[in-house]
Amino acid sequence: MSGSDISIGMLLSGGVDSAAALKQLKLDGYENVTAYYLKIWLEDELSYLGDCPWEEDLKFVKETCELCNVPLEIINLQSEYLERVVDEALKELKQGLTPSPDIYCNEKIKFGSFYDKVSKNHDFIASGHYAQLKRETGKEVTLHLAPDKVKDQTYFLSNLSQSQLQKILFPIGHFQKSEVRSFSETHGLPPKNRKDSQGICFLGKIPYREFVKYHLGEKEGDIIEQSTGKTLGKHQGSWFHTIGQRKGLGLGQGPWFVIDKDLNENIVYVAHADSVNNFAKDSFYINQVNWINGEPDLNNEFQFKLRHGPDMNTGTITKTKASYYITLNNKDTGLAPGQHAVIYNDTQCLGGGVIHWKDT
Fold first, then answer.
1. Residue 326: HSE in the Cβ half-sphere, 13 Å Cα cutoff
2. Residue from 65, 68, 201, 349 carrying the catalytic annotation
C-alpha cells in the first residue's frame, strides 16, 4: 500500500515529541491521518487543583493539527483509565509495592482501550515514543532501543503484545532528542519550545505526592536506620516512599537512601550513602512476565533495565516453577517489589516482568 492508502490514528499530547511525530508522518507521505487527544484526567483531582492544567496541552494540540492540516478528535477514556491504571496503581501502593503506571498506560490505554475504540477506522496507531520497531516480511515485529539512550522509552513499552506492535508506528523513534528539537524549530511546530513533561502519565501537572495523599491520606511513622535501629525522623506514610529513594526524606547529615519498608508497622528503613551498598541485591524473581516474541533461549546472558533510564545491568535468567529467577552481575540498591525489570538482548527489548522476592 502507498502512504495515501494507509489510515493512521496519531496520538497527540501537546508536547514536542508527538507534534514532531505527526509532522514526520506527513513528510513520509501519509495523507490519511487523524489526530487524537485522549481525555484521561481525573475529575476528583481537578476539583481540588482548580483550573484545568490540561487546557494548555489541548491548545498546542489544536494548533499543531491546524499547521499539519489534519482533523482532531478528542476521545474520553476517563473511566477506562481510572479502572485499568489509576485504581491498579493505588491497589499496589496499598500493598507496599512500587507500581509502574506508565507501563500499564501504554499497554491498557494508549495501545489498548484507545485502539479498541478506533481500530475499525485505522490501519496503524502512531505516537511520539522514543523506540524503534523492525519489520520483516513474514516475521514478527521486534522492539528495539532508540538511539537516544536517555530518552529511550522501551522500558515503558515492554508489556505490549505482538498483536499490538503489529499495529504501531513510532515516526521519531530513530531521532535524538536534540534532532527532534531542531526538526520542530525548522518546521515551526507550535510546541517547539515546550519543556518535556516529567510527571507520571495519568497525573500530568498534578504532583505525585498530592495524588497519593488525596487517595491514601497520611499516617505518621518512623524513619529508622537499618543498621543501628536508631530512629532518625518521621514520615507521613510509607506509601509515599520507594526503595532507592534519596530525596524527600528530610534527614540531615545525608545523603540517606530508602532500603526497605514495613507496611504493617508503617516504618521506612534507610541507610547512609556510606553503607547503602551493604544492602544492595543481585537477585530477584519476576512474575507476570510478558515475552514480546516468545520466551528466548535462557542459556544466554541478558541485559536488564531495572527502572526507566539509560543504565543497564547484565545477568542471567533461570525458569522456576512459578516464575523466573534473575541473577545480576552487579548489585543494585534500588530494587523494589512491584517495579518492572525489562529484559534486552543487545538492542532488542524482549519483554519484562514484575519484581518480587519470592517464587510466586
1. 32
2. 201
